[in-house]
Amino acid sequence: MDLTVLSGSSHPVLAQAICTQLEIPLASTTITRFSNENLKVRIDESVRGHDVFVVQTSCPPVSDNLVELLMFLDALRGASAGRITAVLPYFPYARSDKKDEPRISITARLVAELIQTAGADRVLTLDMHSPQIHGFFKIPVDHLTAVPLLCESLAQDEELMSLPVVVAADVGEAKDAGRYARRLRAPLAIVDKRRSGDDEKARLAHLVGDVRGRHAVIVDDEMATGGTVFEAATFLAAQGAASVRAAVVHPVMSGPASDRLRSSNLARLLVCDTLPVPAAKHDPRITTVSVAPLLAEAIRRIHGGDSVAAMMSMR
Questions:
Q1: Is the domain 147-289 a CATH 3.40.50.2020 member?
Q2: Which residues contact 102 (CB under 8 A, 6 or more apart)?
Q3: CATH topology of 3-145+292-312 equal to that of 147-289?
Q4: Known catalytic residue: 201?
Q5: Per-residue confidence at 314, pLDDT binned at 50, 70, 90?
């Protein structure tokens, strides 16, 4: 089967970077929004019998981008594509993974069902907020991690590596933070954070571990409003950390995140390009690590029938 990569409107820069790595052109598509807010997507070239990868991440407008993805999957199925893979650098509605209140939707499961029904034969994604979302699918899911890429960048920070400590932003992140600590050969500390309700406010209780005189790097899978990370940064400084950095895979940067970053004591914020960061939210302390080589290698292996397990073993 011929290899084809096409992009939705959410993150064409990343899709183009993936194609550059694969040394293939990005397939031509047309997306039309009508005056009544309806969408129409069209693939401008034949994909009959092709191995097609659709790159679409979950950024604003989230629901529009999800519908756009579903329309592309359906269009590809109707165009007789040989195999269809949904490439989701940041999974839609990943936080809605359980029924923790009465009468609510487990929306991550609903999204999984929609993607399958629309026509996807498999899914490729990165660092899902809840790994159990994998179990919502009845089709193959390749769940990769960008942690090694972030660690490579952190390891080049001489000041950080002179006396580092990896800090989990909350207890739930401790396991993933351990992966950073092992790779950076650094001690691990954990911020005991409590959250209640939907106000997205994190309340810090105490610190497990020692950060005094060390260069701390807070790690998390994503940054939404930034409350967790920025409050932890202030807390760590009060605990005697020499400097504070943060490394997150998905820069959601919603609500007051940008303002909080500007007024924070973070020396550096390391993120991946799983989501586009609008120009209005840029800050000189933000360093972006591209996941395009990682996704391109996964696409190359899936297309060639090679194992992706070696990439997953990097977790």
A1: yes
A2: none
A3: yes
A4: no
A5: very low
Q: According to the model, what pLDDT value does residue 228 have?
A: 86
Segment 184-188 long-range contacts (CB within 8 Å, at least 24 positions apart): 184/151, 184/154, 184/155, 184/217, 187/214
169 close to 216: Cβ distance less than 8 angstroms = no
Helix or strand run (H / E) with residue 193:
strand 188-195
What pLDDT does residue 60 have?
95
Write down the catalytic residue from 40, 193, 201, 281: 193
> Which pair of structure tokens corresponds to residue 45?
């070239």
CATH architecture under which domain 3-145+292-312 falls: 3-Layer(aba) Sandwich (3.40)
**What's the pLDDT tens digit per position in 23-41?**
999 999 999 999 999 999 9
The CA R_g of the chain, rounded to the nearest whole Å, is 20
**pLDDT tops 50 at residue 244:** yes
